[in-house]
Design a protein that fits this description.
By secondary structure, the protein is mainly α. Helices cover 79% and strands 0% of the residues. The protein contains twelve helices and no strands.
Length: 277
């Protein structure tokens, strides 16, 4: 019924959506949307380095994203600039250095559009193994780190007092983000990764009554967005990555319609949150 490439795209997209759902919830709870963007922008620098030194693309993107997050942690500790200013500097610098490096590498033919917007229809079976293998790893890590991550999101001081090591949880969270960005780049592209992280989680927030339910719902909504976006792109002959984001956006808009009650999760997370960033 479908061509092989479409089935592969669907399987890869669903695997990715399941993985990024719970991570997206933490991005929203911790108000770190801009951080996700910065990590995604650093991916292009990873691409440039992998071409220059002939490295594995995913490994290179992961290393650069991880280095950028460590840089951010170090600069935050120095406290000279606000986090959003630091993120703005790191984000645009990494993206621009990547673009300049690519421009210098005249001997390499590079499909920039493919990297920026992804090419889910070109995923191979090896990519699917990577998405699902990496995804399962990330989900196990999230389950394992759930309590320290949630505690340090709600109240870092209390988490510290309970011996949950919020700083370490935060570092692990950033490394998981770097891994997901490395996995997701080929599928949805550098510019669309953040939207797949944030939009399904923001939609789930409306219906969730607990953090755990929100994480599960975010994955489910992501799967719906991927499926709807791919079928839409097949039907209307539109680019697949952006179509997935448009589908996610559509679900988000639907969730804003005034039906049912708003999930209680807002109050649960933010009553104890005290506006912590």
């Amino acid at each position: 019924m479908f061509d092989d490439f479409f089935t592969r795209a669907l399987v890869a997209g669903i695997g990715l959506a399941i993985t990024v759902g719970p991570l997206g919830c933490f991005v929203i709870w911790r108000r770190m949307a801009y951080f996700g963007d910065t990590m995604a922008h650093s991916a292009l620098l990873g691409v440039a380095l992998s071409l220059l030194f002939n490295l594995n693309l995913m490994l290179s993107v992961f290393i650069v994203a991880a280095v950028v997050s460590l840089l951010l942690l170090l600069l935050q500790k120095r406290g000279a600039l606000s986090t959003d200013a630091l993120l703005g500097i790191l984000s645009h610098s990494a993206l621009s250095i990547g673009l300049v490096m690519v421009a210098f590498m005249t001997w390499v033919r590079i499909d920039l559009v493919g990297f920026l917007f992804g090419d889910i229809l070109a995923v191979s079976e090896a990519d699917i193994d990577l998405v699902w293998g990496g995804g399962i790893l990330v989900l196990f890590a999230i389950v394992y780190l759930w309590r320290p991550l949630l505690a340090s999101t709600v109240n870092p001081e209390l988490a510290e007092a309970e011996g949950l090591q919020p700083e370490r949880a935060r570092l692990y969270f950033m490394l998981l983000m770097a891994l997901v960005i490395a996995i997701a780049m080929k599928i949805v592209g550098i510019l669309l990764i953040t939207s797949l992280l944030i939009i399904p989680a923001a939609t789930a927030r409306r219906f969730a009554t607990s953090p755990e339910i929100m994480a599960v719902l975010a994955s489910g909504i992501g799967v719906l967005a991927v499926t709807g976006g791919l079928f839409g792109s097949l039907h209307f002959d539109t680019p697949s990555g952006p179509s997935i984001v448009v589908a996610a956006m559509g679900l988000f808009v639907l969730s804003l319609l005034p039906f049912g009650r708003k999930g209680e999760i807002e109050t649960a997370i933010h009553s104890t949150h005290g506006g912590h960033h």
